[in-house]
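Morning!

This is the sequence you dropped in the shared folder:
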Amino acid sequence: MNPNQILLMIGDWPLRFGEAALSFCALVILLLLAITIAVMRAGRRGADMAMTQAMRADALEERLGEMLRAQSESNGRVDAMAQALAGRQAEMARAVNERLDSVTHRVGQSMEQTTRNTMDSLRVLHERLGIIDHAHKNLTDLTTQVTTLRDVLANKQARGAFGQARMEAIVQDGLPKGSYEFQFTLSTGKRPDCVVFLPDQRPLCIDAKFPLEAMTALHDARTDEARKFASQRLRTDVLKHVSDIAEKYLIAGETQDSALMFVPSESVYAEIHDGFDDVIQKAYRARVVLVSPSLLMLAIQVMQQIMRDARIRDAADQIRNEVINLGD
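The structure's back. Tokens below.
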């Protein structure tokens, strides 16, 4: 075929056979080139995808390995925790058992101690009941004695004899015979209930006629007005008796400068000392000292010591004189 042969007319431009062949070849070449480029691009994309998938597979494998390692570690931790919990449970069980044993032991000891204490308390209670029974009997006897004493104190003469008897018993128990005398007559004709002859000193007078009528009235008072009246009466009677003692028994140059007023009851003395301090102070200024039975005993002991010291001095003087006489 002639290359210059016109195949067709495209407008005013004739398309010859050679040009058409060249164009076709060029088109084929272009198609092949396009296909080659497409294939190359598709291969490159496949390689990239394969590489990406490979990388993803590696990453997944690595993640899977990490997950397996984490699971292994978790299993190890769970095993360790299980062992630790088992150990703690065993330890707690042992501790609970020990504490239960200790508590049981202590409870047993406490019950034994409580039983012993209860028995001791019952024994002490029994003893105290016996003491209370004995005390009740003594209280009954004492009530009878107090009733008798109240009957005695209701009579003025019996009251004076009661105080005199208590004072005499205390003096006789504490002093040797010859160192005292009851109802001794002074130069004025007055007779104190007792005088004590102190060595190289003037005698000490003791009076036992304490006015108990006002104190009895004070105890029997039931109203404030009655108590006020009885208190004033007691104050007046005691101060009057103090004045009488000072006037009768404090004789200058013959008796001691002070005298003792014997109160035959400790409770009466305590009541006067606590509630009538002005009476105590006025009696002291009048040089009359109120003494209870215990204070009179103490005063008698002091006098006894003075007498003993005087006898020792006399014996020492006698020995000294004998030694001097032997020397002559």
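Headline: The mean pLDDT is 79.

More detail when I'm at my desk.
O.
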